[in-house]
Amino acid sequence: TFKLPTDSKGISLSPDNTRVLVAGADKLARIYGLDGKLLEALPHDGIVSTVAFIDAKRVATGGLDKLARVWTSSLLWQRQHQGPVRQAIFTPKGDQVISAGDDKAIKIWSAADGKEVKSLPSDSPITHLSLSADATKLATAGADKNVKLWTLADGKTSAPIALPAPAQGLTLSPNGQRIAVALSEGTKTVIRVHDVALGKDVQTFEDHAAALKALQFLGDGRTLVTASLDKTARLLDVNVASILAAHPAGATFAQFHSNGAQLVTAGADKKVKLWDVAKANVIKEFGPVADPIK
């Protein structure tokens, strides 16, 4: 039994016995779950006098507006969290949906049928999600003021990034190497750009005068798009292309290959390293040599 907001003029049960279609005197036909939750509302120009399920996806309605209508339900599926859901995102291929919220659970669902693929437990309610372009890494911001980077294959996380205030926005770069977080620090709205490999912030923006409502990396991996309550939207250039923790004792030499894709460095640690610039990874290491390289 569930309460309706208006007089019912007709009722129909779906063929799969999961939904109830109700004709209302307030010019709406409503579809409810068996738990009484409203799933969908279908507007009319007059009192709805008759309703019927045609099949699991289509319904027919008629009313005092002298029209008979056939509707295709826009709701494909819905699944339940144990608390409010704060964000849900599609994977880049569109084959999965990732959702999270106050129940401290990250849920991965099949977009086709809503079947649960995986559930990852979190230590804190989650407020923001962002996914890498290859859908292997997920950045989350929690109510505990920590940001984490998850490897979705095994559910492991990086060391948490502590924030001085709750995150207003979060975005992970397409390659999964940078995390940008928006937050308030005193009277300032700040965007911090964190380098995952280095484990530290590499850039800070203080361009906005009010809270951010949107924050996103573009596909180039170095441009941030923002929208703020200060009535501005901005494109911000993360102009640090890469930071390499090249030599613990200090780098003394660096030169690009002519192809621009590789870099050679030398240091006081008596080692020479060849780098893949795009991935910020060492391809090959030489040494140590007899003396420090100057």
Overall description:
By secondary structure, the protein is mainly β. About 0% of the residues lie in helices and about 55% in strands. It contains no helices and 27 strands. It has strands at about 10-15, 20-25, 30-35, 40-45, 50-55, 60-65, 70, 85-90, 95-100, 105-110, 115-120, 125-130, 135-140, 145-150, 155, 160, 165-170, 180-185, 190-195, 200-205, 210-215, 225-230, 235, 250-255, 260-265, 270-275, 280-285. Strands 12, 13, 14, 15 and 16 form a 5-stranded antiparallel sheet that branches. Strand 26 and strand 27 (about 280-285) form a beta hairpin. The termini are far apart.
**Spatial separation of the terminal alpha carbons:** 82 Å
- Mean of residue pLDDT values: 89
Identify low-pLDDT runs.
none
Task: Tell the overall outline.
Answer: elongated
Q: Give the proportion of residues in helices.
A: under 10%
List keywords for this structure.
27 strands; 294 residues; mainly beta; 5-stranded antiparallel sheet; elongated; 4-stranded antiparallel sheet
Give the SSE layout.
Elements: E1 8-13, E2 19-24, E3 28-33, E4 38-43, E5 48-53, E6 58-63, E7 68-72, E8 85-90, E9 96-101, E10 105-110, E11 116-121, E12 126-131, E13 137-142, E14 146-151, E15 156-157, E16 161-162, E17 167-172, E18 178-185, E19 188-195, E20 200-205, E21 212-217, E22 223-228, E23 233-237, E24 251-256, E25 262-267, E26 272-276, E27 281-286
